[in-house]
Amino acid sequence: MANTGVSMIDIQRELILSTIRSTTRGDVRPSFTLARAPLTLAYKKLIDNVVKEDDILNLNITNIERLEERRTTQRDMDAIYIITPRAHIVDCMMAEFEQRRYRGFFLIWTTLLPPPLKERIDRSQMAREQIRSFRTVHLDYHPQESHLITFKDPWSFPTLYHPECNNLVVRHLEDMAEKITGVCVALGEYPVIRYYRPRNPTHEASVLCSHLARFVQDKLDMYAQYNQDFPPQSNRPRGALYITDRSMDLIAPFVHEFTYQAMAFDLLPIIEGDKVTYRANVNEEDPDSEEKDMEISDKDKIWVENRHRHMKDTLDKLVGDFHKFIADNPQFTNQDAASTQGMQGLNQIKDMIAGLPQFQEMKEAYSLHLTMAQKCMEIFQKHKLPDLASVEQCLATGLDEDYRKAKNTADQLVRTLDEPDVTPSDRLRLIAMYVLFKDGILPSDLQRLLFHAQLPQPDGNVISNLDLLGARSSRQLKEKRDPPPPLFPPKAAPPINQEDYSLSRFNPAVQDMLEDHVRGTLSHDIFPFTKMSPEDMNMMQENTPAASLRSAKPTWAKTRLASVEPRQRVIVFMAGGATYSETRACYDVSNKTSRDIFLVTSHMVKPQLYLRQVGDLSQNRRSLRLPIDGPQPTAPKHLFEKPEPPKPAVPPPGTKPMPPGLPAGPKVNGPKPPTAQMGAINLNAPSSSSSSGKHKDEKDKEKKKKKLHLFGSKH
User: Fold this and answer.
1) Which one, of 78, 122, 135, lies nearest residue 103 by Cα?
2) What is the pLDDT at residue 361?
3) CA 287: distance to chain centroid?
4) 385-469 in CATH: which number?
5) In this predicted structure, what is the pLDDT of residue 684?
6) Is the per-residue pLDDT at 261 higher than 90?
């Protein structure tokens, strides 16, 4: 995979660090307090995803804490809060102000604070007195890869498509629009916005993309209105944002793709939690070794280099690179003991020890991916995926291996369903693809197929529920129906030497959309603009958008250091979840053209999750257990606990208690005052006891005046 030179992970990391850096200004050492919103994105974990803790501590930060945890009051220190604008988080902050937990509060909200919550803070005199800074920095997204951003919100799918969730849709679209705006702001893009508008829609959700595109346009316009430096000056062509949803390509989540990443996430038990991990034993030659969770991320160069290769090419590359690595590092292989004798041998051992950590890490990385690839190929053979995929490709493309119209698909389907090694979920996926290919079948035929595949009748809900996403799953006897025109015309047959990839003929609709965008031939009817200037029209119609922009704009932004043509940034948002085949498609088009393409989505969809989520669309809403329908998070009770008053000092031994009501007099039998030591005390020195007297009171008053003046100068 080519290196496009820009990474959303790096952009978010620098955004976080620069925000903290500008807040500390290098002259204070505040604590760093993070708020985590339960049931949504965990901001501590989000920051951990892109920033090392040491990077934060090096910015004059003394410690990092979570808002919900018990913390000691430190009124001689300032605190920076990176917090999410939710009601219970505002409750937490009001408790912080009430307790006067810190000297000053620097609030950084990860997205815009809703007006009712902001008004609550604005009305609080305690808040006004203690807040030193109040700003919004858009961070409410999770860069999973350099060009893949998710919101980690699988609940988005039922919210958008479940019939009983209609009252949630507008608010959810507003929330997504805010996050998409944050991605655009982070990239420095004020893009031209286009959205998917299906032909002859039959489902209620057909208007989702148009509404979401309008919301994003409004929010970007407002941001540009209040931030005169946005967008920043750049010699890049103006970016493009495409708002699409799952209904644009219903078939992609069903198809088996045989590129490494898509195949691994489909077939292997990869865990997508705070980190993406796969449990494996990468040191099998060691009898004491155990399985452990291995992280799969952009930090793994072998993964980045191979994840979008076809599995055949991935295996060849992994095996070849592994043998080359061992051959290039003979000092790390088992050596004869005599070679390590004497001083020269000791030096060699030192060199081996010095290089061992890197070698071990590389060896584990190669072992991990060889293990994953091997497991994929075992499943590929065991469950008859070559035969299954041959039928899938005909159904998904409508063409056979010779790129002619597919025929006898029903016979191929039935023969494949008869294979005992084909898993039940793969049978259901194949039936769903057949129904989509036929643009609906008789309900009785669907029941026969399910019975023949030995699938339970409730699995038929997965098929019928596709109607809620724009499909037509059933038809009546003798009903005449014109087949819907394809969203994009079929591709021409590839060169003859592409035979090895006959099981990978299908490309997601996202890839066709992006290729037409690059060519400037994308339909304005199916992908209309939210608004557009004549200059934007020229950009979209030209095959080389950068050239058309240069002719339309002055060359003030052209830098002498630019050695390559500036790359236009294209952002694709897929509502309802995106597949790893669509991720691969975005990278492929990006590498082949002068574009940087970023895929943004609510969550990543694996085939098993897609089957379950589509099937759940016919369940009642209560059974979905949506977070919004459950108990809402509340501020921890301990934040509202009054601090314990200081305990009275224990009198020295021999001191008699004073009778109540008598004036204070000289102490009897007490220790003599240390007059010599008191004479040596510097009254201007700080003191930790009550002996500082009047001087300390005056100093506190002066400090308080200074605080209030500082606050007043900023508000």
Assistant:
1) 78
2) 77
3) 38
4) 1.25.40.60
5) 42
6) yes
Query: What integer pLDDT is reported at residue 543 of this predicted model?
Result: 42
Domains 8-139 and 144-249+508-551+567-629 share a fold: yes
Superfamily of segment(s) 144-249+508-551+567-629:
Sec1/Munc18 (SM) protein, domain 2 (3.40.50.1910)
pTM > 0.70: yes
Q: Where are the beta strands (DSSP E) in 137-222?
A: 142-145, 148-150, 192-195
Other Cβ atoms closer than 10 A to 228: 6
Q: Which letter, b or e, does each residue of 532-563 get, where b requires 16 or more Cβ atoms within 10 Å of its Cβ?
A: eeeebeebbebeebbebbbeeeeeeeeeeeee
Domain map (residue ranges) of the chain: 8-139, 144-249+508-551+567-629, 260-382, 385-469
Contact 375, 383 (CB under 8 A): no
- Name the average pLDDT for the chain: 82
Question: CATH code for 260-382?
Answer: 3.90.830.10
| CA end-to-end span of the chain | 50
Would you state the structure tokens that stand for residue 487, as one six-digit string?
A: 């969203």
> What pLDDT, in 10s, does the model give residues 451-499?
999 999 899 999 999 999 999 999 888 888 777 888 998 777 766 555 5
> For tokens 């605190």, what's the residue?
79
How many CB atoms neighbour CB 121 within 10 A? 18
H-assigned helices in 309-452: 311-328, 342-382, 385-397, 409-417, 424-438, 443-452
pLDDT tens profile 38-63: 222 346 777 788 888 888 888 888 88
Class of domain 8-139: alpha beta
Question: Taking residues 88-105, what's their average pLDDT?
Answer: 92
